[in-house]
Amino acid sequence: MVVKESQVGINGFGRIGRIVFRNAYENPDIQVVAVNDPFIETKYAEYMLKYDSQHGQFKDEISHDESGLVVGGKHIKFYAERDPANIKWSETGAEYIVESTGVFTTTEKASAHLKGGAKKVIISAPSADAPMFVMGVNEEKYTADVQVLSNASCTTNCLAPLAKVVHKNWGLKEGLMTTVHSYTATQKTVDGPSGKDWRGGRTAAQNIIPSSTGAAKAVGKVIPELNGKLTGMSMRVPTSNVSVVDLTCRTEKPVTYDEIKKVMKAASEGELKGILGYTEDAVVSTDMNGNTNSSIFDAGAGIALNENFIKLVSWYDNEWGYSRRVVDLIFSHFSLFLPISHYQYKPTKVDTTLPQKMALPDCFKAGLHLLLNPKPLNLQLQSTFIKKYLLSNCSHATLKLPLIILSRF
Fold first, then answer.
1. pLDDT tens-digit profile of 345-355?
2. Pick the catalytic residue: 154, 158, 249, 363?
């Protein structure tokens, strides 16, 4: 049984748009079929996708023609529409749209993509009103009726798994977060006007710039029991990529730092594998460039004042790791609700032991694919998928027992 590729469109071919493309290209179950960006020509889009100062040269052949890009022999339609409602996603088969312009971040604005034939829209930024999902934290709450959603911010994706582990094991009473964040495209190369954010107008390459961020408060949206218990700020620093979260918090239960390290390591190897990383090496920021985890706990960098007051440090590639979560969200959750036409079931020798007339539920077929092809998934997602979707749709006794066993890993 094979799953057809999920057809994806990208609106906005800036930093995140291009890095999402690169990550999607590494996933054989996802195909980017269309890109929209009104501010760049196709030839220039080819150049920017091919060469990247931070992540290196694209590893496959790229060219362009009058209507789009050709990547690895596959054609990608290129649009230049300013209004998302005018993008004809349906003519390319694009069903899942990554909204990465940073402009259309509300449900109403992002919903314009639905007029062109899109079925789902992921906003690659925090949203004021769209539901936010952080992989490894609250993705199991996604339901099929949600058409527009937010992947939150890169910093929230780093902080939330960390906060989840602390709260689950010792209770997170309150906390302050500081993200030491690389400069981004919105900052200035030389001093210039910047509206009300006067500090933000200073040159990025020469300064450490204090800034505001809603990333910590957003954790309260994905972990409701932490609502009002976290806040934070940002320090923008003169590095081009990779950032680090400093979470200083009080716990409800007493804990030693060694106990924290042990639990974080176990989580990184178990339920949060692929989401939360763990290192005891003496790493620096460039060592984390290209890391696909949302958050990499630095065991050697944290400290504890006492058994209830601790400082935790966790790295994140704010471009690559975040973009990988966008891709994971498309594959791991949108695909759970695809119609039967999306799957091609090919019986194998293993299937001969089953009744020939047995009709496997649609989501069970999807589950077989996900279990047999687990590369894009982490262990927690597999377990959640089995428990929530497969067991509830499987009545065949000989199949149910193996699923129960798998769900316990």
1. 344 444 334 33
2. 154
